[in-house]
Amino acid sequence: MLSLIGLGLYDEKDLTIRGLEKAKNADKVYAEFYTSRWYGDVKKLEKMIEKEIEVVDRKDLEEDSNRIIEGARSKKIVVFVLGDPLVATTHTILLNDAKRVGVKTEVIHNASIYSAVGETGLHLYKFGRTVTIPFPEKIKSTDALADAIEQNMKMGLHALLLLDVISEKEKYMNPIEGVKILLGIKKRFFTEKTEIVVFARGGSGRPLIVYGRVKDLIKRDFGNPPFVIIIPGELHFTEKEYLECYRVGK
How far apart are CA 176 and CA 133, in angstroms? Predict the structure, then answer.
């Protein structure tokens, strides 16, 4: 049996009771932390589940996933995943690979950024396509990024922009870096007058929510990661009222 268990957004205290019980009964436990910044402590998590945890990287869940899948043929294997297990495409592929060779699978869900952004007051059903802003050294063209954001804007939908992570270097893009990349796109759909939301450290119980024009936010210190940027679409009056509580500038 292969079980993917969500760790939630912030630290080991976000683990669900169902996930805790499943991990305690596992024969082997893995964990990946490369998709975002996690403020938990692996030693504390090991103490909670009474098991040692092997931390793996992206390669172990992609091209080298056979080791985990083969182990799940005869043993109870758990993989801890930040947020919700099925938010990252990699984990859907892992489940599919396991199913294809007859290994039973299950998923124990948890909070993800897709639900946490509701704290901004924006209606979740009005979000369009999610886009990742990559570090400049990882892309040759910003055309696809621009096209995806423009499609959301034309439909009046909120655009959730995830900021890139280079896990092996513990490098997390901050909102200022993300904004500067958007300002550098030749298509002028994004300017210093564009209103955006910066949402930081979702799930921590002490998130930062800031709303305003780019020019009023570009010199702010947003603290520690993780961050997302939201370009709001057409706002319902209740969304407007909520966001005004977090406005910076006039």
Answer: 12
Q: How far is residue 210's CA from residue 205's CA, in Å, rounded to a whole number? A: 16
Residue-range domain boundaries for the chain: 2-111, 114-244
Return the CATH architecture of domain 2-111: 3-Layer(aba) Sandwich (3.40)
Residues facing residue 230 across a β-bridge: 160, 197
For residues 167 and 58, what is the distance between their CA atoms, to the nearest angstrom? 9
Gap between the Cα atoms of 120 and 118, Å rounded: 5
Predicted structure pTM score: 0.92
Per-residue pLDDT tens digits for 197-226: 999 999 999 999 999 999 999 989 999 999
Confidence of residue 94 (pLDDT cuts 50, 70, 90): very high
For residue 175, what are the contacts with CB-CB under 8 A and spacing of at least 6? 163, 198, 200, 217, 222, 227, 229
The CA R_g of the chain, rounded to the nearest whole Å, is 19
What is the residue-averaged pLDDT of the chain? 93
Distances, alpha carbon 110 to alpha carbons 157, 192, 222, in Å: 25, 36, 26
What CATH fold (topology level) applies to the domain 114-244? 3.30.950
Q: What is the pLDDT of residue 250?
A: 67
197 Cβ contact list (under 8 Å, min separation 6): 120, 122, 209, 210, 211, 229, 230, 231, 232, 243, 246
d(CA 61, CA 233) in angstroms, rounded, equals 36
Give the pLDDT score at 186: 72
